[in-house]
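ESCALATION

Customer reports they have been waiting on this structure for their group meeting. Please prioritize. Original submission:
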Amino acid sequence: MEVGDSTITVDGNPFTLSGSRPRVGDPAPDVELLGNDMSPVKLSSFRGKVCIICSVGSLDTSVCDTETRRFNEEAGRLGDSVAVLTVSMDLPFAQKRWCGAAGINNVQTLSDHRKAAFGTAFGVLIEELRLLARVVFVMDRDGIVRYIQIVDELTNEPDYEAALKAAEELL
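Update from on-call: job pushed to the front of the queue and completed.
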C-alpha cells in the first residue's frame, strides 16, 4: 500500500492513511518505538513470541481505553508466549500514567510520537491528524505478519475474537 491510497473514517468523516502497509506473509517492519521510560524498543526484540500489535488513536479516548483493557485481560490468559503491544502517538509519560491508572500490566504500551516510524512503516498513520488508525496486527514468532484487521471507523472497537483466534492458531 502506498501513501494516500487508503482511508478510514472518524465519526463518518474520511481520513487518509499514509505509509506502506505490510501484507500477510511479509516480515513486519522493524521500527523503533519508545517505552514508557523513554528507552528505545525495537519490534524485533519480541521475536520468539507471537505478537499482537494494536495501533490506537490515543489511550485517553474511550474506545482505545476499552480496547487496551480488553487485550490486557486476554494477554493474561494467553500467557508468556504472546506479547501484546499497544502503539499510539501518546507521549511515553502519558502512556505510563494511563497504564498505572488503568492497572495495565499484561500489555506493553509503546509511543510512536517522535518519528511516526510505526505509523508510516505499517501504513496506519492518519495523515490529517497525525494519529494512528485502529488496526490489529498479529505476527508469528519469526516476525512475519499473519493477520491484519483494519477498523474502518476509528470510533469502533476491533473484532477481538478474530484477532485472538489468529494469535492462538500460531501457538
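Sent to customer with the following note: The mean pLDDT is 95.
Escalation resolved.
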